[in-house]
Amino acid sequence: MTAVFIPTMLQPLSGGVKQVDIEARNVRQLIDELETLYPGMKERLVEDGRLRPNVSVAVDGEVARMGLLEKVGEAREVHFVPAIGGGSSPSPP
Question: Domain 2-82 falls in which CATH fold?
Fold first, then answer.
């Protein structure tokens, strides 16, 4: 089982639950299971069959590079976190 930490912004959907244990092989299955437990969760995490651009997933402390296909089978922790954008270019004078 993998401990999935539900971010504050999604806790209204989980009834305030902050962590849940889920068995899944990859992030896609994990999100599908979250949707089963807490309807509406998938819509907040997935768009057009991909992770939303404003969401990142960390599996055992490493940012998932493969998105929904990232393996989580033996992972101990999964965190959904707001994606951090890069800096901005200086504005013209």
Answer: Ubiquitin-like (UB roll) (3.10.20)
